[in-house]
Amino acid sequence: MLVYGPDAGLVSERVAALVDALSKNLGPDTELVRLDDRDFAEDPGRLGVECQTQSMFASGKVVRAKAGARLDAAAVKALFDEPVANPLIVEAGNLRPDSGLRKFFEKHDEAAALPCYADERGLSELIESELAKSDLSIDRETKAYLMGRLGADQALSRGEVAKLAIYAQGSGKVTHDDVAAIVGDASEIALDNFVYAVSGGDAAVALRELNRLAASGTDRTVALGALSRHFTKLYLVATHPGTLEDGAKRLRPPLHYKRRDMFLNHCRKWGARRLASALPLIQEAVRRTRRTPDLGTAFGERLLLALASKV
Description:
Elements: E1 2-4, H1 8-26, E2 31-35, H2 37-42, H3 46-52, E3 61-66, H4 73-79, E4 88-92, H5 100-107, E5 113-115, H6 120-132, E6 137-138, H7 140-149, H8 154-168, E7 173-174, H9 176-182, H10 186-199, H11 203-215, H12 220-238, H13 244-249, H14 260-291, H15 296-308
Parallel strand pairs: 1-4, 1-5, 2-3, 3-4, 6-7
């Protein structure tokens, strides 16, 4: 089964639901094997091995693989040359109709493709169902305001609504002020997740967040521009003549209190010298992405790997 679409959060939720359904059929101790490009780089035949061999200690096995440079239509076709012993779920981003991977799953007799496209009705239902769990109601105008502050990623939106429900719990009704106080702009949250993953040295998470931003409509130049501003702030604090804490207090706008400790830790991890060498790399990636947007994905991936190698 191929599950794909521009909303990474919705795709992830659908894949999780499929895994749960398959696990119930196979048995309560079903083994879940997660694979991505890192696994295929270490062992090109790993997908075939996991799909063809039964688990030694569990009642069944489900293989969840993320599509990427090393998991494409050719790799999947080779796998289906023989009967597949274990269920395979491939998770992918937005795929064009002429995508080889999509066409294979749509046409093969023993495979299927599930597209995932979020819409306003789905977001409205998500809000109502999450608030109902806490016995909260919301009027039409407040719901419209809330929907405007949520992004296109369903997983992020669900998290924000759950946070809102905790904040308003016991009041019986979510108000406009509740939404304004607790729900941040989802695109801003996603940008923060991205830049902090980069400065934290987690290339895999950073790449996932960058792809999630692109899928939700955020231009890669915007994301890389935010990364440039973030590293500039790190450099300014790292080169402050006083303590890092004093340097952070001088930033405008000030750091969000929830991110402050992480920001200071990343300052210490990088140091002024490495931050100074990272800034030109980021700025060059921004310039190249603006000149040739079609190559933005490649420029972004190359930059993230280069930065991760410096931490």
